[in-house]
Amino acid sequence: MEHINKVEIRGNVGTVRMNEHNGKKVVNFSVVTDFLYKSREGIPLSETTWHNVVAWSGKDIVDLELITKGAQVHVCGRIRANKYTSADGVEKFFYEIMASRLQIVTDGD
User: How far is 59 from 64, CA to CA, in rounded Å?
Assistant: First the structure.
């Protein structure tokens, strides 16, 4: 059986942190998505999720300078789990999307 790790999101950029590692640009940013649905009683509800994204400059990635707070983006990639030990000695886990394709979405898209 083949294993699949693929995710695709479209939403608005929140925080942005640009860095350089070994001469290559990398940007860490957050993207907010909303899932709209109705309760059993028919009341409209919204579920908001923040996603952490990592994008390295390269093929299928827009100019990283275009990733700014509020921009609407379309991200395709894979989910990666990370862990670290906090200052108080507690092991913590977080997930991030490693972008393989990244586009800025315009009104016509």
Answer: 12
Two tokens at 38?
Answer: 């109705």
pLDDT digits (tens, 9 = 90+) for 23-57: 899 999 999 999 999 999 999 999 999 999 999 99
Res 109 pLDDT > 80: no
Query: Quick check: 60 and 101 in contact, CB under 8 A?
Result: yes
Separation of alpha carbons 75 and 7, rounded Å: 8
The helix/strand/coil state of 56 is strand
Interatomic CA distance for residues 31 and 11, integer angstroms: 6
- What CA–CA distances, in Å, run from 49 to 16, 53, 61? 17, 13, 23
Beta-carbon contacts of 105 under 8 Å, excluding residues fewer than 6 positions away, are 10, 72, 73, 74
Largest CA distance in the chain: 55
Q: What are 53's two structure tokens?
A: 């994204």
